[in-house]
Amino acid sequence: MRISRIECLRIRSPNLNPQDCDGAAETAVIRITAENGAYGLGETDAPPNVISALLETPTAHIWSRSIRDLLSGENALEVERLWDRLYEGTIYHGRRGLGIMLLSAIDIALHDLRGKLLGVPTFRLLGGAARQAVIPYATLFPSIPQGRSLGRSPLPLCAADGKGSRPWIQGSQDVDAVRRFDYGPPANRFRLRMPEDCRCGHRIDD
Question: Residue 110 is part of a domain; what is its CATH number?
C-alpha cells in the first residue's frame, strides 16, 4: 500500500496566555494517508508553524531533500526503511532539534498507519505487551495554566536532588486516590493504584 499524502495539522489554542507555562497551548499533528484512504497520526510537541514549514521545504541537494519527495509513493508498511530514508535524506538540516521532532511525528504516524493497514494494534507490531500496568507520569510546570486547578489540594513533591521540595511542583491529590509517591528524581513522578489513577485523572481539568 503506497503513501499518497503527508500533511501537518497545526493546532493552536485560541486562548493563549504568554505568562503560562503550558505545553498544551499548541502542537503539530502529522497525518500520513495511504492510497486506500487509511491514515496514521503522529504528534510532536513543537511549534506547528515551524514543523509545517519544515514539511514544505523543497529539495536542495541529496542531503537536504523534500520529505514529501522522500515519502510519496513509498510502501507504507516499510516503516524502518522509511525512517532511514528520511534521516539520510534530511541529514543536512534535520539531524537534530526540530528536524528530529518532525521525524519522530512521522515515525509515529507510519506505525499507526501500518497497524491500521494490517488490522493489528500497533503495540503488537512493536513486540506485544511488555506489562499489564504502567506507572503514570505527571509533568507539572511552575505556573498552572490559565488558572486551572490540578485537584482539590496540592501536594508538594520532592526536588530532583531528593533533599527538599519545590513549592511549585505539585501533584493532584484526590484525598483517597494518591496512596504512594516516589520521592527523589524525577521530581514530578508519582504512583497511583488502579483504578485510583483513573479517578484522579478524570479530576484534572482539560
Answer: 3.30.390.10
Q: How far is CA 203 from CA 69, 148, 175, 206, in A?
A: 45, 11, 12, 9
21-79 pLDDT, tens digit per residue, is 667 788 899 999 999 999 999 999 899 999 999 999 999 999 999 999 999 999 999 99
Are 108 and 54 contacting, i.e. CB atoms less than 8 angstroms apart?
A: no
105 and 173 both lie in a single domain: no
User: Which set of grid coordinates corresponds to residue 83?
Assistant: 525512517
The answer to whether the CB of 72 falls within 8 A of the CB of 85 is no
Range of the domain at 119: 3-125
- Closest listed residue to residue 202, CA positions, set 156, 136, 157: 136
3-state secondary structure string across 130-149 = CCCCCCCECCCCCCCHHHCC
**Full-model pTM:** 0.68
DSSP 58: P
Residues 88, 188, single domain; the answer is: no
* Binned average pLDDT, 10 residues per bin, the chain of 206 residues: 95 79 82 96 92 94 94 96 96 90 96 96 89 73 54 39 37 35 38 46 47
Sign of the alpha-carbon torsion through 173, 179, 184, 187? negative
| Final residue before a domain boundary, out of 91, 125, 159 | 125
Which residues share a beta bridge with 69? none
